Amino acid sequence: MTVNVVVGAQWGDEGKGKVVDMLTEHADVVARYGGGANAGHTLVVNGRKTVIRLVPSGILQDKPLCVLGSGMVIDPAVLRTELETLASYGVDTSAKRVLVSEHAHVVLPYHVLIDQLREAGANAIGTTKRGIGPAYEDKVGRRGVRMIDLLDGARLRARVQHAVEAWAPTILNLGGEVPAIEPILEAYSAHGQALRPLIGDATERLHQAVERGESVVAEGAQGSLLDIDHGTYPYVTSSTVLASGAASGLGIGPTAISKVIGITKAYATRVGSGPFPTELHDALGERIRQRGGEFGSVTGRPRRCGWIDLVALRHATRLNGMTELVMTKADVLEGLETIRVCVAYEAGGQRVQRLPAALDGLSAVYEDLPGFSGNLSGCRGLADLPEGLRRLVALTEAATGVPITWLSVGPEREQSIRLR
Ligand code: GDP
Ligand code: IMO
Ligand code: MG
Are residues 75 and 218 in the same domain? Predict the structure, then answer.
């Protein structure tokens, strides 16, 4: 059993990119299993920041094959730009390092158009407007275009025609203009030709990796509370974010997975609409936003900031079968007088210790920990941490029942403290 899954434990942007980069130094394969260019994973290596949206976060390491898995929805235009940018940094983006599953679905211009039109209306949920929802709708509606279809002109024409006909009334209803098919066919055939060397049988490659006992990291995107089945519906993304999505999205059996590593910040953030019981609407929230650089890596939107929520985190731990946690951005709490930790909710005078399907009307119950000042970079282990952080680690481990193996104290690879 060789597959380790890295999954966001909150609402996304927990620092998965940094952790995947760190964990793939010796990996053979790193594979994204879901989502698309709604993700923004940031890598900071030797002072240079790289934000990647589609290519797995092991690409800056020398060795691992980076697989864009079957469960993804891929915007080929975004992918080509991303590959060009990486190549301009001297990164090998040839078929030696990048494999795009022929099963993965394609995000087309009408998906982006529909996402944008919907977000301009009354039922907006604050999506990234990257066409993710409509692309997954087409997949489930069995009228999607797969990466392999980009390589066959006749099939591409039939698939796009089918989808555009199906979407036309919706587009008109939303006040949009139904796009012409010919320019789409021309542009997407060209994308197919450009990406042809990278498109292949990722499922077979992953089966081989599992059978040979290679080291595989499955990279999640988004966060557990944005999962289509178990997140804060309808304020969720349209894919399976949870670790179970690594099995379905990569085409491997759940028995191939050995570790599930959840990533949580030492506080919490959320982008877009939806419930967030520990949200701070005051100067403290603004301070965390500024210190943590909490602005969307895809959309630049200010992220909503608040305290860590151990009720939600415990739920995420159970949803994923997590075996360990990595806590990031502990350095951002530096200089605060008090660190608050949500240990329960209250509703109508009752304590609630689980995450209900509707979070409205809940208020957070906090335990307060002492703040700390000074740089954490000199800390080498748990014993060196300031009291407030030690207690935060202990409370989180007690609530979730899993160990925190690493504490991240800065965006660079080296700014990580091994705790267990
Ligand atoms: P992802 O989507 O989960 O990969 O996370 P993002 O990349 O969207 O957002 C995390 C941000 O925090 C990025 O800008 C990272 O460079 C940064 N980051 C990651 N870990 C740490 C940390 O421990 N401390 C600080 N200050 N920044 C971090
Ligand atoms: P990473 O991988 C944070 C959120 C959007 C919106 C909801 C639905 O960087 O952690 P979508 O465009 O997916 O239909 O939007 O999901 N969202 C994310 N929030 N980080 C992400 O990815 C996200 N991907 C989607 O803000 O609330
Ligand atoms: Mg992100």
Answer: yes
Q: What's 269's domain CATH number?
A: 3.90.170.10
Nearest to 263 by CA among 10, 3, 4: 10
Q: Find the 227 Cα to ligand 3 centroid distance in Å.
A: 15
In 142-221, alpha helices (H): 153-173, 181-195, 202-212
Residues 42, 150 share a domain: no
Nearest ligand 1 atom to alpha carbon 17 = 4
Ligand nearest to the CA of residue 12, numbered in listed order: 2
Q: Burial letters for 96-116: b for 16+ Cβ neighbours within 10 Å, e otherwise?
A: ebbbbbbbbbbbbebbbbbbe
- Answer whether 393's CB lies under 8 Å from 404's CB: yes
Residue type, 40: G
SS3 419: coil
Domain extent for 149: 105-194
The answer to whether 296 touches 376, Cβ cutoff 8 Å, is no
Residue 230 to residue 7: CA distance in whole angstroms: 14
Dist. CA 405 → ligand 2 center (Å): 26
CA Rg, the chain, in Å?
21
| Whole-number Cα distances in Å, 186 to 8, 160, 193 | 37, 12, 11
Residues 275, 256, single domain; the answer is no
User: Which of 232, 261, 290 lies at the terminal end of a domain, its last residue?
Assistant: 261
The closest-lying atom of ligand 2 relative to the alpha carbon of residue 12 is 10
Instruction: Indicate if 105 belongs to the active site.
Output: no
Q: What is the pLDDT of residues 268-325, one digit of tens each?
A: 999 999 999 999 999 999 999 999 999 998 788 999 999 999 999 999 999 999 999 9
Torsion angle, CA of 60/45/316/67, rounded to 10 degrees?
-10
**What are 328's two structure tokens?**
């990031």
pLDDT digit string (tens) for 70-116?
999 999 999 999 999 999 999 999 999 999 999 999 999 999 999 99
> What backbone phi and psi angles, to 5 degrees, belong to 69?
-80, 170
Our count of domains for the chain comes to: 3
Question: Per the confidence metrics, is the pTM higher than 0.85?
Answer: yes
Residue recorded with tokens 């934000």: 51
Q: Which tokens go with 101?
A: 């599953």
- Token readout for 305 is 């900031």
| Distance spanning both ends of the chain, measured CA to CA | 22
Whether residues 142 and 62 share a domain: the answer is no
